[in-house]
Amino acid sequence: xxxxxxxxxxxxxxxxxxxxxxxxxxxxxxxxxxxxxxxxxxxxxxxxxxxxxxxxxxxxxxxxxxxxxxxxxxxxxxxxxxxxxxxxxxxxxxxxxxxxxxxxxxxxxxxxxxxxxxxxxxxxxxxxxxxxxxxxxxxxxxxxxxxxxxxxxxxxxxxxxxxxxxxxxxxxxxxxxxxxxxxxxxxxxxxxxxxxxxxxxxxxxxxxxxxxxxxxxxxxxxxxxxxxxxxxxxxxxxxxxxxxxxxxxxxxxxxxxxxxxxxxxxxxxxxxxxxxxxxxxxxxxxxxxxxxxxxxxxxxxxxxxxxxxxxxxxxxxxxxxxxxxxxxxxxxxxxxxxxxxxxxxxxxxxxxxxxxxxxxxxxxxxxxxxxxxxxxxxxxxxxxxxxxxxxxxxxxxxxxxxxxxxxxxxxxxxxxxxxxxxxxxxxxxxxxxxxxxxxxxxxxxxxxxxxxxxxxxxxxxxxxxxxxxxxxxxxxxxxxxxxxxxxxxxxxxxxxxxxxxxxxxxxxxxxxxxxxxxxxxxxxxxxxxxxxxxxxxxxxxxxxxxxxxxxxxxxxxxxxxxxxxxxxxxxxxxxxxxxxxxxxxxxxxxxxxxxxxxxxxxxxxxxxxxxxxxxxxxxxxxxxxxxxxxxxxxxxxxxxxxxxxxxxxxxxxxxxxxxxxxxxxxxxxxxxxxxxxxxxxxxxxxxxxxxxxxxxxxxxxxxxxxxxxxxxxxxxxxxxxxxxxxxxxxxxxxxxxxxxxxxxxxxxxxxxxxxxxxxxxxxxxxxxxxxxxxxxxxxxxxxxxxxxxxxxxxxxxxxx
Amino acid sequence: xxxxxxxxxxxxxxxxxxxxxxxxxxxxxxxxxxxxxxxxxxxxxxxxxxxxxxxxxxxxxxxxxxxxxxxxxxxxxxxxxxxxxxxxxxxxxxxxxxxxxxxxxxxxxxxxxxxxxxxxxxxxxxxxxxxxxxxxxxxxxxxxxxxxxxxxxxxxxxxxxxxxxxxxxxxxxxxxxxxxxxxxxxxxxxxxxxxxxxxxxxxxxxxxxxxxxxxxxx
Lengths: 800, 218
Ligand SMILES: Nc1ncnc2c1ncn2[C@@H]1O[C@H](COP(=O)(O)OP(=O)(O)O)[C@@H](O)[C@H]1O
Ligand SMILES: [Mg+2]
Known about the structure:
By secondary structure, chain A is an alpha+beta fold. Chain A has 25 helices and 19 strands. In chain A, a hairpin with a 2-residue loop joins strand 2 (85-95) and strand 3 (98-105). In chain B, helix 3 (101-111) packs parallel to helix 5 (142-154) and helix 5 (142-154) runs parallel beside helix 6. Chain B has 7 helices and 10 strands. The interface between A and B is medium-sized, with 31 and 36 residues.
């Protein structure tokens, strides 16, 4: 009995291979996008965990001076007073052409369990090896390879637990590489250290939770939240597809279900069989989806890695490891999605009367009441989203705004489309036009899920591409302003630097030192630059807000320029005082934009910096010159400077832009994928509906419309719905872009971007969605145009 | 002559092989004539009506509507025949669910470009539909729906009305009154009527009767 029943149920898929394909493909696509995003996130998280958690320092509190590094004596004083602390020195260094994050720990006092390298290995190393030059350092194998040929580095030991680009070494070695002059960034509070601050012992020290300093994880969180949102969105779109196909499969098999019940299969067993079928299908599609997701993730990961490195300085490897965790989550999500999509069908079977009803049932009838309920829910979501950033601060509020906006708009879509179609019907002149609008309106319930997914995809597309393009435009303009010099020269040493300046003085228009110190600003990593008095700064520097006489104050040593990030984070405006170090405060004379930099930054007049930080490395210079090419060649010959130390502003601009292009490759790829999934959703919905369309199309056909006319109208219908959906998606997407630029960006990066509109992109997107609608309509319409008249006639047959 | 059909044959191909349904049928319909087509279930009445209504094509034989051959045309010309020369009424009513009653009533007339508001008003009044014009088909009873279908078929003043068991889905009392209205209106417009029915009682109300059996006129 059960086998016969199963055979009867499964035979449906043999007869409807296309339906089988859409079901599997829809679920697989949804799972693929979801698990791709999960895979990328998991990979990146693993790397951060390696970066921060490897040392287990996340579990320790620290003492630090918000104004900057502390001298070695502070550490010694605290130790003598019985404080269980261990010093840490951190910094970035350019070693060869590698940007390396250095972490200097005191190998003796630091918590041993948290040091890299296994204890046995460390035991085989003699203290002399560790502490005497050149010393030892632990790096990832990749980094070890990259740094192999660089002279003057400590002996590098490969350690797979370290992320690429990070070097862990003894604090003395780090001090030498960073030229920190014995300074200490922070003190780890070990077990047994007293509570509170040392007070009079070191009044400038404050206690920090290590987590709150987790700059990288805070910043990258937004990136991952972004990705996850994309993944969820794609999955929702995929669910719409699955809902459609499963609903259809159930509807079409009603007679089979009825017969099976009539010949004595208990309801419970029928439901059990169907459930088993769904689970099997979900596992099959989920497996395919995970495979596909892995491929997508592997293809995207190098760009993600580049993005994270470029934007946040966070290092993750560019290759993907297979993790059963996200594979399982993908499979689970596929199962849950399929079961959710099937509940409606299963439920209707539970309630199905044994005898067929005479009236043909429409498959997706939504009552006006439920439509209204749905619209109301949409409105509530929309309002809640708008309220979120007003009521709360932070990244989450920004995402609540986006979520509420997107979901609310999607839920409102059927009502809005219904109203538009009614208006169309009211304005229509001829009978065909009138029928067209009225009939389109009637199709709406069956198509609304697919159209909602199209709306989501389009709105995200408009939103994200507006953000990206605004960003690009702003960033390019900003780079033009900011890269004031024609040539950038880095001297290999201070002595060479001095010789270089002397040599350049008669040959260049101006030499602009780019000297900076890395120093915490308000307890987070920061940098202070010194600049000389030159007209190019006044005319070029991208100021966002300033006092009345910013440059006069600045060059008189009565003011500082700070970047937008720092101003936002510390809530500083022109005129406010900013602390640049212990006992060093200056009024803010202006705030400038500084895109792509996670660190807080301040600029002071160079003499001021030299008094406060005489140790500042004097290596980098910007050169104003008519002939950057010739000068670069001359410098190359005269000083033997490698090409990497001589960069003209054109290549610098190209490099910077390249980073940002890659930043958005990922989003772009996900955008395209989501849009294609939405197109697929429309195709399935149209295919689903087309098989139930005959009864609605037969009367107009009998009354004198040709099949070709009907086919044209069906195509037009698909186009009209796509165009109307686009019309609603556009404003939704623009509001989305606004919230990305003005809310999410500010919360995540500390900078706000001006929004630009790109109507050409909208036209392109409209064209894309029309093409998608056209493609989606093609199969069902071709089928309709070729429908044999006898199929129409069956509609009129007596026996129904 | 309104309709002149000669030697029509039609064979369906089914899973069990060929099924000859019509084996050389000829029939004529004169202006003002009302013809009843009777026969057992499955005798091919609907098939014949579909051929006459240009909904389907015969395997052989010719059909002329007012001297114009409709068997040789293409999809478009057959659609034009349905639009302009024929009123169709089905057992299942087949109203357009997305349009209200007024729009349904006027649909074919407007499609054919022969919409006459006064005539439509007369039709809806005579068929007792005046109160229902802004409703939708699903809100009407079977008898009401069939009256709309009759009105829709007669609105363009077609020369011929073809009806396939128009009262088959209605109870007897309703069937009688609907048929009465239809016959009166057909009489007034001077159209020819060909009505399929398996009820000898109803067939008796018409001027002539044709019985189908074994794919032939008996
Ligand atoms: N499209 C078709 N394909 C195959 N067989 C058909 C088709 N349409 C009708 N038939 C068969 O042709 C015969 C005549 O049908 P029909 O004209 O509907 O009979 P009636 O209307 O007199 O009851 C029946 O046996 C029916 O099953
Ligand atoms: Mg019949």
